[in-house]
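Box 3.1 A note on notation
Throughout this textbook, protein chains are presented in two layers. The first layer is the amino acid sequence; the second is a token string describing backbone geometry. Keep the layers aligned when reading.
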Amino acid sequence: MPVKVFYTSVSGSREIKKKQQKIWDVLSAKKVEFEAIDISQDSNKDEMKEMANDATVPPQICNGNEYCGNYEAFLEAIENEQLDAFLKL
């Protein structure tokens, strides 16, 4: 089951867009299969909130139905060389 990255295509925030791109770049470089899910569609936002304990700010990362964490937790996992464990691979 691929990793899910909840993102938004309609954010005016350059910071959010940079975070989303960083996640995609790292996952692609490590050849981790992932699905990018745009929360600008209401049903996807509801799914992200349910999976991520009511978190409303993307990006949020899940593996199947298991919540992995947000961008800050993703960066911490990279720094600690624990990305596979973070992504529950």
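The longest strand covers residues 3-7. The chain has a mean pLDDT of 94.
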